Amino acid sequence: MSDTTAGIDSLGDLRGKRVLVRSDLNVPLDGTLITDDGRIRASVPTIKQLSDAGARVVVTAHLGRPKGSPDPAYSLRPVSERLAELLGRPVAFATDTVGAGATEAVAALGDGDVAVLENVRFNDGETSKDDAVRGAFADQLAQLADAFVSDGFGVVHRKQASVYDVALRLPSAMGGLVASEVDVLRRLTEHPDRPYVVVLGGSKVSDKLGVIDNLIDKADKLLIGGGMVFTFLKAQGHEVGKSLLEADQLDTCTRYLTEAADRGVEIVLPTDVVVDTAFPSGDREPEPTVVWASEIPADALGLDIGPESAAAFAAELADARTVFWNGPMGVFEVDAFAGGTRAVAEALTKVDGLSVVGGGDSAAAVRQLGFDEAAFGHISTGGGASLEFLEGKELPGIAVLERD
Ligand SMILES: Nc1ncnc2c1ncn2[C@@H]1O[C@H](COP(=O)(O)OP(=O)(O)O)[C@@H](O)[C@H]1O
Ligand SMILES: O=C(OP(=O)(O)O)[C@H](O)COP(=O)(O)O
User: Fold this and answer.
1) Cα–chain-centroid distance for residue 39?
2) Which residues line ligand 1 (CB under 6 A)?
3) How far is the CA of 269 from the centre of ligand 2 (A)?
């Protein structure tokens, strides 16, 4: 990636211009309550910069993974209300993403005003694999603006209409958040101090299993926790009960274990796990039980790495000089299953070198568990995006800003 990707200044005088900003406002919610507003806070400087420059700011973003049609559970309205509080100025909310409602909301903006469009993933054009379908939706988005600013670092690895296609249709620039994230992550790709340890967890198992291939070439050790553990354990011949499992990835996991061994890279899996007979919900008290990873009962599901594994992961991290961590080790939202995540977070704060945490939920976990953000080298707003950057992959949302 070039060092010269055009920033917002390249768009010239923005007074009175309609500027579409793609932010990543994908925050954890409990009903309509935002449980961590980190990504909204991270989006504020660019939105404020545009507003202060007199632009008519139109924010587009997604929340969760709705199925391409409106779903009130994923409305961005609570997020736009929080954004207004953080900006200290009113924010209009358009109940449509494109079409009449959105056009009217944008037309009503004065210089410096801000509007948020409803969840961009309520439209199936946003995530379509068909270029023409995505393009048609991007045409509609582009009609709402005179220029585009890409500031959602957490989505730059997605070739989606509001990230990629819209940048083909409008004068476009990189926002300060994406630029600063890339600056830090570049330090991990260019001569990282070794040992370089990558810790992976979370629930987006199919996304993240895919990145291991390239990370085997880059890191010295991979510590695996969270939901992806169970596909590895199953690939080793163990039963995993009702735990998360990507059955079609078993051969891939076997290949990773062989490749890593061949190249002298260690893949460290938990030896014990915390299980329960049901996924945590408000309806019942959790009943956490620690079992060997090789002996998960048929009626149980793994919800955290166990205490022996947490101590082993912390010991591996004690020697590291560079660490990247994405994905909680367990269902940290419930205290009974937060032990592994807490142990890894604690170990990262003690790293003698650069420690980077990436991902919406990982960053939220660090804050919710009471850690001081300053104890980490960097807390990135993107998990999957960071991982793909570290793999050396071209990220569509960045490449599109750099084309001639
Ligand atoms: N063993 C597990 N089974 C199911 N979900 C898990 C497990 N471990 C962690 N999780 C869940 O993973 C979610 C975060 O995953 P992910 O979105 O991949 O992380 P990030 O946003 O940091 O990239 C959390 O909500 C957590 O509860
Ligand atoms: O939460 C996000 O990514 P992350 O969990 O990898 O940090 C981004 O908002 C991207 O969301 P997506 O993975 O549904 O495309």
Assistant:
1) 10
2) 201-204, 226-227, 244, 302-303, 326-328, 330-331, 333, 359-362, 383
3) 24
Q: What six digits make up the tokens of 239?
A: 């039963």
pTM (predicted TM-score):
0.94
12 is annotated as an active-site residue: no
Q: What confidence tens digit (pLDDT) does each residue in 68-77 have?
A: 999 999 999 9
Q: What is the ipTM of this complex?
A: 0.97
Domains and CATH numbers, the chain: 8-180 (3.40.50.1260), 194-352 (3.40.50.1260)
Phi/psi-derived region of residue 94, left when phi > 0, alpha when psi is between -120 and 50, beta in every other case = beta
Contacts by residues 64-72 (CB-CB < 8 Å, ≥ 24 positions apart): 64/26, 64/119, 64/121, 65/121, 66/119, 66/121, 66/122, 68/121, 68/122, 68/123, 68/124, 68/126, 68/127, 69/122, 69/124, 70/118, 70/119, 70/122, 71/122
Any known ligand binding at 24? yes
